[in-house]
Design brief:
Blueprint lengths: L2 H16 L29 E7 L2 E3 L9 E7 L12 E9 L10 E4 L1 E2 L11 E5 L8 E10 L5 E3 L20 E3 L4 E7 L7 H15 L3 E10 L7 H13 L4 E10 L3 E9 L3 E8 L8 E9 L2 E9 L5 H19 L5 E6 L7 H8 L3 E2 H5 L18 E6 L3 E8 L14 E7 L1
Parallel strand pairs: 2-10, 11-12, 17-18
Antiparallel strand pairs: 1-3, 3-7, 4-5, 4-8, 6-7, 8-9, 8-10, 11-22, 12-14, 13-14, 15-16, 16-17, 18-20, 19-20, 21-22
Length: about 425
């Protein structure tokens, strides 16, 4: 007499156990009925957890494959399988920042097990693959996993306190893809090897890795004398490469002997190919000063990139030097009018060097984007004058600019100058 009600109760309990405990959320906070929930088990109690592994940010060229993208996958009773279980499906996808990955606005392709990571985790497999977005823009990327035809479980990040798929998919936790329709530039006076370089180096390297500039101009590149002497730029680029995985080209110009200790100079650094480079010695002042320049083959075309460090004592000398800089850049531009000039000008925007730059049709990025902000850069940590600049010419349009290395961290400043990071569009 009681068998049928008991069976009915058991069935109801089973349905309750397999029902979602919460809905995943779309970027606008609405329910997304197609997204599997964190406790989706893929059938037969194969609970699924996954997370995007690396990279959190990546640049891509439209129509070309991205770098390898990695995701972690854990399925109870299945992983690590090394890809041997055909019932386990893992895909990578990309889509607009405003849409959830369950919508038809996302594109997906199969991922494969990273054989080099076999045994990296006792209960996980690492999957990898590449995506090929066809259009420029800013996108999100994600992974999705299912087992034996179960609902898809969507994966976001699990670093820095995040939980991967355990708390559903959230746009704010999704890694990004960006096409370099814009280019980024940095200028920074490195302050030689002074003021505890060993403490400053990781701060600068961290800031530059986050900025990930296409073009970087440095002043006060300094090297100790002798075969075993240290050089700040070589050490910085090595630390930067270790953080980003990129290889960088360096164009140097030594200028003078400073602090009775260092060979000082200026330099350009870029992850893109350098087609040609050169230097110009400027009219003399307290020290020898130079302009260093390079033609860089960026993803958005060839750019004439340069940096300089003008005299620190005499305004008349600086005016002669900037005249020489402008004449050289005009001669170099020719058929390559897109030009970026960075540097420590040792003079505020009320000086004659700024007037001459503006008269030559250069755009001061800070002034163009922050006309009401004095933007002081020197001396750190409490600057009183703006002497560091990023200048653009021709068809280059400024989009963003901000100070970097402008805070004291555990008593250490990156330099005695704030750096600048800018974004511009050719």
């Amino acid at each position: 007499m009681l068998r049928q009600p008991c069976l009915l109760l058991v069935c109801l309990l089973c349905l309750a156990c397999s029902s979602p405990s919460r809905s995943a959320r779309t970027p606008d906070g609405g329910d997304d009925a197609d997204v599997a929930t964190p406790d989706a088990d893929g059938g037969d109690d194969h609970e699924i957890w996954c997370a995007t592994q690396w990279p959190n940010e990546s640049l891509y060229q439209p129509g070309s494959p991205t770098e390898n993208l990695y995701t972690r996958v854990r399925v109870a009773g299945v992983t690590p399988s090394g890809g041997a279980d055909a019932a386990l499906e893992v895909q990578l996808g990309y889509g607009p920042t405003s849409e959830a990955p369950s919508t038809n606005t996302w594109s997906w392709s199969a991922a494969h097990v990273n054989a080099l990571c076999a045994g990296c985790a006792a209960d996980e497999d690492e999957y990898m693959g590449k995506l090929t977005p066809g259009e420029p823009g800013s996108l999100l990327w994600a992974a999705r996993v299912r087992y034996a035809g179960s609902p898809w479980v969507f994966c976001d990040r699990a670093d820095d306190g995040r939980s991967g798929s355990a708390d559903g998919w959230n746009a704010a936790d999704a890694p990004t893809l960006r096409s370099p329709a814009s280019l980024s530039v940095v200028t920074l006076n490195l302050r030689c090897l002074l003021d505890d370089w060993d403490a400053r180096l990781p701060l600068i390297a961290d800031a530059l890795a986050e900025a990930d500039p296409d073009l970087a101009g440095f002043q006060e590149m300094c090297a100790e004398d002798g075969p075993g002497g240290r050089e700040n730029l070589t050490e910085l680029v090595s630390a930067l490469s270790a953080r980003t995985g990129r290889t960088y080209s360096i164009v140097r110009a030594q200028t003078h002997w400073s602090w009775d200790t260092y060979h000082e100079g200026i330099a350009l650094v870029t992850p893109h190919p350098v087609e040609s480079s050169g230097e110009l010695e400027l009219p003399p002042g307290a020290f020898t000063r130079k302009l260093v320049h390079a033609t860089v083959a960026t993803p958005q075309g060839r750019i004439l990139f340069a940096t300089t460090h003008l005299d620190h004592l005499d305004a008349a000398t600086r005016e002669l030097q900037i005249q020489a800089v402008l004449a050289e850049l005009e001669a170099l531009a020719g058929a390559l009018p897109d030009l970026v000039l960075t540097g420590d000008f040792n003079e505020g925007p009320d000086g004659n060097t700024h007037l001459r730059m503006s008269a030559a049709a250069f755009s001061d990025m800070w002034q163009a984007l922050h006309p009401g902000d004095v933007g002081y850069t020197y001396p750190a940590p409490t600057p009183t004058i703006r002497i560091d600049y990023v200048w653009l010419k021709s068809g280059l349009s400024p989009e963003q600019i901000q100070q970097i290395l402008d805070v004291v961290i555990e008593g250490v400043t990156g330099s005695d100058h704030f750096g600048l990071w800018g974004l511009f569009r050719p």
